[in-house]
């Protein structure tokens, strides 16, 4: 451990957007975790880092393309050397697109797979490398409705999310006996975001009835997953509004 490191545990959020990812980072920061947040563009993290600091927490923003093997290896190496021991890793990159099957190009399909599946694999692998020697840690992959069923127009997204779910299952079976908790929460419903408000106003109107997911409430569930004792570990958890069909 270098002199520049702190003694706080470290939580890494890959894909710390303005909604769920940011809420998760803020939740762990409130518990004293040094939070590492990533997006492809470092400047997109400025507001989140400033918010966490204003709330009394500690945050470090990194620009990183999670699809790049070398970049991900370097990210984890830098965090371990410069910030501290990683105890929690959350993979939260979104890749939701909708095209008919005949309009889904090879480029679209490949890009969605890279974002939701390949990046998840690279995140999980690098997390396992640093956690295994310590025999502890939590790795959480954010799932979606598409992780369970392929809907019309979501061939690329569903294929990628199915792959991520399989990765999480495989890692849980391999790493659980070695002290590492791997979980795959499924977010089954619309989340309170600017995108939903602007593009699906009829869906956003459900907010006052508790009909869309609050990012802060999602973040609380992630924190609770991390706190679970090993005799009652959750692997898969459905999170959906009470009025969402399933």
What are the key terms here?
246 residues; 8-stranded parallel beta sheet; Rossmann fold; alpha/beta
Describe the structure in your own words.
Strands 1, 2, 3, 4, 5, 6, 7 and 8 form an eight-stranded parallel beta sheet that branches. The protein has a single domain, classed as 3-Layer(aba) Sandwich (Rossmann fold), CATH 3.40.50. The protein has 246 residues and is of the alpha/beta class. It has helices at 20-30, 46-54, 69-82, 106-131, 155-175, 194-199, 201-204, 215-227; strands spanning 10-14, 34-39, 58-63, 86-91, 137-141, 143-144, 180-187, 236-239. Helix content is 42%, strand content 17%. Helix 1 packs across helix 8 and helix 4 (106-131) runs parallel beside helix 5 (155-175). The protein is built from eight helices and eight strands; from the N terminus they run βαβαβαβαββαβαααβ. 43% of the residues are buried. Helix 2 links the parallel strand 2 (34-39) and strand 3 (58-63).
SSE topology sketch:
Layout lengths: L9 E5 L5 H11 L3 E6 L6 H9 L3 E6 L5 H14 L3 E6 L14 H26 L5 E5 L1 E2 L10 H21 L4 E8 L6 H6 L1 H4 L10 H13 L8 E4 L7
Parallel strand pairs: 1-2, 1-4, 2-3, 4-5, 5-7, 6-7, 7-8
Helix pairs in contact: 1-8, 3-4, 4-5
The CATH topology is Rossmann fold
Instruction: Please identify which CATH superfamily we are dealing with.
Output: NAD(P)-binding Rossmann-like Domain
- Structural class call reads alpha/beta
Count of discrete domains = 1
User: What is the CATH architecture assignment?
Assistant: 3-Layer(aba) Sandwich
Mean pLDDT across all residues, rounded?
A: 91
Q: Indicate the CATH class.
A: Alpha Beta
